[in-house]
Amino acid sequence: MAGTILVGYATRYGSTREVAEAVAADLRERGETVEVRPLGEVYALDGYGPVVLGAPMYMGRLHGDMLEFLTWHRESLQEHPVAVFALGPLTDEPGEVEGCHAQLEKELAKHAWLHPVSVELFGGKYDPGRLTFAHRLVAMLPGTPLHNRPASDARDWDAARAWATDLAERLQPASVR
Ligand SMILES: Cc1cc2nc3c(=O)[nH]c(=O)nc-3n(C[C@H](O)[C@H](O)[C@H](O)COP(=O)(O)O)c2cc1C
Predict the structure, then answer these.
(1) 168 Cβ closer than 6 Å to some ligand 1 atom
(2) Quick one: pLDDT at residue 173?
(3) Contact 87/54 with Cβ under 8 angstroms?
(4) Quick check: 86 and 14 in contact, CB under 8 A?
(5) How far away, in angstroms, is 102 Cα from ligand 1 center?
(6) Positive or negative, the Cα torsion across 151, 57, 77, 84?
(7) Which residues contact residue 120 at a Cβ distance below 8 angstroms, ignoring those fewer than 6 apart?
(8) pLDDT in the model for residue 10
(9) Which residues have a Cβ under 8 Å from the Cβ of 129 and sit 6 or more positions away?
(10) What is the mean pLDDT of residues 32-50?
(11) Is 144 in contact with 7 (CB distance < 8 Å)?
(12) pLDDT at 171
């Protein structure tokens, strides 16, 4: 693959960072050079080849660092192959997963200039004991999906690694396939 792969992530509680690291580990096993960085610390894409962007969903939106990154780097992102993953559903219950897919699609549709080679949604992690004050308030509201929800971790490490393996193939220049 041409150039260092940037795996950039947004996160509030760390679960997306861990998935970003799993994706990066798989790509490295395939011989790629990979840098894993928080999106808020990436100021330019110079020197990178493909860009993998990961972010959690919050209240139907992609994490703000991801939205900011897409806005700031709109022009340069169009010169790189881009892949996107998001974390969201807290169970593998089909209704919840479909709802999160719809949220992600709606968010990405706001950036129609972005043409990712691959988009994937992974299960997320939830720990009510670690919520910020604002998120605790959200979780306290009766009728919201987080109300009285127990801690859970729906991340599927095999799925994350399988996605990375597939990415390594998709991001390969056509000439060396
Ligand atoms: C307050 C709150 C709101 C959330 N809203 C959504 C949502 O709208 N859609 C979704 O799919 N997941 C939602 N989630 C689940 C998160 O995306 C999931 O917990 C994710 O793993 C968090 O990532 P992070 O640890 O990298 O911050 C929400 C979680 C919290 C705590």
Answers:
(1) no
(2) 60
(3) yes
(4) no
(5) 14
(6) positive
(7) 83, 84, 85, 86, 159, 163
(8) 98
(9) 151
(10) 97
(11) no
(12) 79
Q: What tokens were used for 4? A: 């260092």
Which among 167, 176, 163, 177 has a CA at the least distance from the CA of 50?
Answer: 167
CA–CA distance, 99 with 88 (Å, rounded to integer): 10
**Ligand 1 binding pocket includes 145 (Cβ within 6 Å):** no
To which residue do tokens 């509680």 refer?
Answer: 13
Ligand 1 contact via 52 beta carbon (within 6 Å): no
Averaged pLDDT, 96-113: 97
The rounded percent of the chain whose pLDDT value lies above 90 is 92
Contact 44, 15 (CB under 8 A): no
Helix (H) or strand (E) holding 22: helix 15-29
**Separation between Cα atoms, residue 85 and residue 163, nearest integer Å:** 9
How many residues belong to the chain? 177
121 forms beta bridges with 86
Q: What is the pLDDT of residues 115-159, one digit of tens each?
A: 999 999 999 999 999 999 999 999 999 988 899 999 999 999 999
Report d(CA 100, CA 90) in Å as an integer: 10
Ligand 1: distance of its center to the CA of 148 in Å?
15
The structure tokens 């580990």 sit at 25
